[in-house]
Amino acid sequence: MEAPMSNSVNTNVGAMIALKNLNNVSDSLSTTQKRISTGLNVADAYDDGASYAVAEGIRSDVKAIGAVNERLAVGKGMIDVAVKAGENISKSLQDVRVVLTKLADQALTGADRTNYENQYNTLKNDIDNFIKDAKYNDITLINTSTNQSIISNIDGGNITVTSQNMATAVYSQLGAASDYSAAAALIATTGALANAESNLGRAMNQLAADSRRITNQIGFNNAIADATNTGLGSIVDADLAKESARLQSLQVKQQLSSQALSIANQSPQSLLGLFR
């Protein structure tokens, strides 16, 4: 095999080697600068197709978890509205008991009885309005028998929020107090008012339990999202301290490669001295 010509104006081997080294350094420098500017070791499919595909799948899951928590927050809002309505109904029932106790007095007659009967009817109307107006995004939990199913995870699982028909369980229990005996029957230990109070207590307890379930699920989903993001970071995040040190090294190499190429390009000029 014929040895390569070391003194040729047609083929400058030194320049070719220097140019190749410069191109390699420039490519590495470009990659490092991209990692520093994006903060990512895998910013797109060109960096690592397999890792990028995995990362995109993980990002999709994280976004889906965010969407689930958004819907869970809506469910939490529905319950909060229902609970606030229940609290107001509870206060009204306390006032109802006070008024009915007075109406159960046989000695209460005339205008005084009429006034207290009006108070009782007003309190009943208030309770009715609380039940009808307790809506969140036009959805009620306390004036219906229809439960609400709320998505709880990215696999399509659901949490069921149990409806509490307070129109039947509470309001309908409050009958007329047309005379003292009717009022006395309402406030008896086993009377309709006691039933209304007991039904309200059970409903509030169930709503509170459902609210805790949703709150716990939101917290769990957030924990999953945090752990998933941590795993994602280990796949795609760049080590900026390492890349910064590499950048400085490559910049020095680029300068040296440029100088080496410049020197190699001057080599053919030495051949001119042979003809002087």
UniProtKB/TrEMBL annotation:
<dbReference type="GO" id="GO:0009288">
    <property type="term" value="C:bacterial-type flagellum"/>
</dbReference>
<dbReference type="Pfam" id="PF00669">
    <property type="entry name" value="Flagellin_N"/>
</dbReference>
<dbReference type="GO" id="GO:0005198">
    <property type="term" value="F:structural molecule activity"/>
</dbReference>
<dbReference type="GO" id="GO:0005576">
    <property type="term" value="C:extracellular region"/>
</dbReference>
<dbReference type="InterPro" id="IPR046358">
    <property type="entry name" value="Flagellin_C"/>
</dbReference>
<keyword id="KW-0975">Bacterial flagellum</keyword>
<dbReference type="InterPro" id="IPR001029">
    <property type="entry name" value="Flagellin_N"/>
</dbReference>
<feature type="domain" description="Flagellin C-terminal">
    <location>
        <begin position="192"/>
        <end position="275"/>
    </location>
</feature>
<comment type="similarity">
    <text>Belongs to the bacterial flagellin family.</text>
</comment>
<protein>
    <recommendedName>
        <fullName>Flagellin</fullName>
    </recommendedName>
</protein>
<dbReference type="InterPro" id="IPR001492">
    <property type="entry name" value="Flagellin"/>
</dbReference>
<feature type="domain" description="Flagellin N-terminal">
    <location>
        <begin position="9"/>
        <end position="144"/>
    </location>
</feature>
<dbReference type="Pfam" id="PF00700">
    <property type="entry name" value="Flagellin_C"/>
</dbReference>
<keyword id="KW-0964">Secreted</keyword>
<comment type="function">
    <text>Flagellin is the subunit protein which polymerizes to form the filaments of bacterial flagella.</text>
</comment>
